[in-house]
Amino acid sequence: MEILTSQQMRAIDRRAIGAFGLPEVVLMENAGLQLLTYLCGAYPDLAVRRLLLLCGPGNNGGDTFVLARHLRNRGHRFEALLFGRRREVRGSAAMNLKALEKLGVSPREVRTPADWRRALAALAECDLVIDGILGTGLSRPVQGLLARVFADVNQAEAEVVAVDVPSGLSGDTGEIPGPCIAADATVTFARPKMPHVFPPAEALCGDLHVADISIPPQAVAAERIDLLLQQESDLVPLLPVRRADSHKGDYGHALVVAGSRGKGGAARMVALGALRAGCGLVTAAVPASLQNGMVLRAMEVMTEGLPEGPEGALSARALPRLLAQLPGKRVVAIGPGLTSHPETKKLIRDLVAHARVPVVLDADGINAFAGDSAALSGRRRPIVLTPHPGEMGRLLGVPTDRIQSRRIDMARSFARRHGCVLVLKGHRTLIAAPSGRVHVNPTGNPGMATGGSGDVLTGILAGLIAQGLGVEEAARLGTYLHGLAGDLAAGEVGEMPLMARDILEQFPKALARLRPPRDLDLPSSRHGGRSA
User: Fold this and answer.
1) How far apart are CA 347 and CA 310, in angstroms?
2) Which residues does 199 contact at the CB level (< 8 Å), separation at least 6?
3) CB atoms within 10 A of CB 95
4) How far apart are CA 226 and CA 216, in angstroms?
5) In this structure, is the dihedral angle defined by the CA atoms of residues 490, 494, 498 and 501, taken in order, positive or negative?
6) Mind listing the pLDDT tens digit for each residue in 353-388?
7) Which residue(s) pair with 445 in the sheet?
8) Beta strands in 125-170 (DSSP E)
9) 512 vs 399: CA distance, rounded Å
């Protein structure tokens, strides 16, 4: 699902009106009806609720006038306030204001602080506020009267449903530009906008409901939007399908290069993540001193013990052994727990340079290229990088806060320049492709900010690539499933005690959420199948 700026939404509206012949008044009517539908579903007791409708002179006010007309026709109790003069209302909004007034409802004008003080009684008596004051086109912070109104609405005990976007937020950013209304829910139209998706503004939108107002999909597609919100329906077709007569070799062999003394768990998490994702075979290449522990704690994983230095990190002497392991592998995952020892960094860089199978690079695998990102390119073979903001900052040699303030631009630019897929982790993880397309992942929770969570993701991505998915598709599907498994784990144990192993344990349920397991009808034991 596309994520729009206010300018893109305006262009889509104009295209729907001009090229597809949908009058603006029809779109406004549809928006008002969708508001009513949402309210009736979300509030079964709507008939006994005391509503206060806050209307602006623009199209958001027009949507709210339509809602008011239908509420009036249904006999619901409400009061409506207009923030501005009647003569300031134009176009389709003015048509709907006149239609409302013909039903005997004349919104009270609020133009001065004194007007608002007289209206405060209505705010105190209501239990549901509909915020239709300002839309997505805000260009500067709100001041004066509206700032006071927003503060009073936020302090009131009534629930708030915003029309399109909470008043005071801009449709072009996830930042909070100034005073704004904090909504319990937001009903937006056609597609989500920037503040609905990205923090900190998203927290002020409450529960988001995206409503269809009959804008043709072609009107949206013509805008060529490259920022997209992942949805389950888009990801289900990416799930690998297993044939009844298949065997483990059909699902790929992944090589995992990870771990060091004291960090053997990182290698296990990656290897088990790959197996959970459906990879047929996994070989973990680890320092020789970790080999026995890997065998004991991850019995399903094959191992290759490699030369290590005195500190227990992989030695550069391990390169020939690793290169000998690459034939027959469909993917190599490199990084978690390797350390930043100079010899290990050299090993990582040499291995990435020689690899001709897809590479998933995480943690110390990324740190090995800090300040030298030019050495990373997906043009020799597909490569996926999975940095958190700190690792991304070290890679580019810029402060972490700069990465955080420009996440989308930084991720898109890096992926384009390096011809790779970049998974920039964090709240609303971004998956940026060489084409410039950026997918935003909606799953995950703060409980996943725990050691090993990223290692599991690295393994999941490697496991999906081993099964034949393209690197962009694997990054999209794996990131979503990883976050969904984390959400299911948080539902079981809570966010605070959540551990990476909980994500592994919940991964099968996450997978089943996207595609429920098939019912097997085996009438007799004569129906056998391969088990190895």
Assistant:
1) 16
2) 174, 427, 428
3) 18
4) 18
5) negative
6) 999 999 999 999 999 999 899 889 988 899 999 999
7) none
8) 128-132, 159-163
9) 40
Tokens of 166: 């909470």
**Where is pLDDT greater, at 523 or 184?**
184
- How many CA atoms are closer than 13 Å to the CA of 383, on its beta-carbon side? 28
pTM: 0.91
Taking alpha carbons only, the member of 195, 194, 126, 123 closest to residue 166 is 195
CA angle 60, 65, 68 (to 5 degrees): 130
**Assigned fold of 6-225:** Rossmann fold (3.40.50)
Place of tokens 């206010």: 6
In contact, 119 and 84? CB cutoff 8 Å: no
Residues of the chain within CATH 3.40.1190.20 domain(s) are 235-241+255-514
Q: Cα(377)–Cα(419) distance, rounded to whole angstroms? A: 6
3.90.480.20, 3.40.50.2300, 2.60.40.10, 3.40.1190.20: CATH of 235-241+255-514: 3.40.1190.20
Task: Look up residue 236 and give its amino acid.
Answer: V
Distance separating alpha carbons of residues 257 and 279, to the nearest angstrom: 16
With DSSP H G I counted as helix, E B as strand and the rest as coil, what are the percentages for the chain, rounded to 5?
45, 15, 40
Enumerate the CATH 3.40.50.10260 domain ranges in the chain, comma separated: 6-225
Six token digits for residue 240 = 């690998």
Instruction: For CA atoms 471, 476, 479, 481, give the dihedral sign.
Output: negative
Beta strands in 407-488 (DSSP E): 421-424, 430-432, 438-440
Tens-place pLDDT, residues 241-268: 888 888 898 899 999 999 999 999 999 9
Q: CB 516: neighbour CB atoms within 10 A?
A: 8
The more confident residue out of 241 and 283 is 283
Q: Token pair for residue 303?
A: 């191992």
Specify the 3-state DSSP secondary structure of 532. Answer: coil
Sole residue written with tokens 């993917």: 331
**Partner residues linked to 129 by β-bridges:** 52, 160
DSSP single-letter state for residue 518: P
